[in-house]
Amino acid sequence: MTRKSPLGSIVPLDGAAPELSYPGLSPQLLARIKQLWSAAGLDFDSHWRTAIRGLHGFRALPRVEASATSTDVDLVFLFDQCVIWVQALHAAASAGRQNGTEGLGAAQWHGLAALSARLTEQLAALRLLALTDLPMPAMQIARSISEDVDMALVILIRPKLADRFAACQSAEEASEFWRRHIAGGRAFRSISEKLYSVGIDHSADTDYAKWRRSVLTTLGAAVHSNALKTNAPSRQQGHVLLNADSLHFATFRMHELCAFSQLVAPTLTDALRAAATSKASASPLAALAAPLNDIIVNQIQSLSTPSAASRQTTRRH
To answer: What pLDDT is recorded for position 275?
Structure first.
């Protein structure tokens, strides 16, 4: 039932059950997520094979016999749920753009399609890097994922800004757009203002905003670190993100994108559903975009924060 991957890990054959790619996965988490899919009338196994098993560089998780907790495996499983959703979002957004589906403007559909395509590639790369123990490039990609999440939310909040994004015709124009509207926390300020209007306070002095700045500073250090520092970073007082932390932060941000997008653009779910039923919809994943919104939001409570203390406790046991 298994074969050897080019990277040396054991990969279950194409028709194998998804859970065989996550040895040590919490049975309770697996049952809960499959129940959410089933309640929505969706077949988890077949869509997992399309979206996750078909990823470039797919790799099953190695079995860790000595682990006393399923936390790390559960995290990858939750991360992969986000990968399925963003691929579904891309399929529906592409159909919405081609068909001119109502609910979002043409530039908003264009932006969502472009950003979800980039997010799909980044998530696939982050997954591979994290599972092959390459923390520094994983941190760099996690930072880029966070920026694209902000970008997607801003496009939903500000249609005129979406028009400017869609009008970029060169790398120079795209870079200038990013510098003027996204970089330096500009996008986050727009998002915070919109969320505040619907009752969520993410202003600069909140604990969330401070935590976010701290994480992004750490991720930024991986991008702009001293070239002489060639060794991978070690954890120092819990501030340096390693593999599980990069996966956790990316998963957290994808959860935010799913939840916040429905708050800042109440018409989005209906628009995604309409786009999936249009003639332009060629991918079977497009039909997942709308129902997966609720499924992903329901998984937020399952995302536990990795910590140095918990890992030390696990190792002692």
So the answer is: 93
> Is 112:89 a contact under the CB 8 Å cutoff?
yes
Contact yes or no for 78/249 (Cβ under 8 A): no
What pTM was estimated for this model as a whole?
A: 0.81
CA–CA separation, 2 and 237 (whole Å): 40
The whole-number average pLDDT for the span 156-160 is 91
| 129: helix, strand or coil | helix
Contact indicator for 143, 129 with CB cutoff of 8 Å? no
Kindly state the tokens that stand for 176.
């200038």
Q: How far apart are CA 101 and CA 53, in angstroms?
A: 30
Q: Which two tokens stand for residue 120?
A: 């799909």
- The SS3 call for residue 4 is strand
Residue labelled with tokens 């628009």: 271
Under the phi-then-psi rule, with left for phi > 0, alpha for psi from -120 to 50, and beta for the rest, what region is 55? beta
Tokens 């989005």 locate to 268
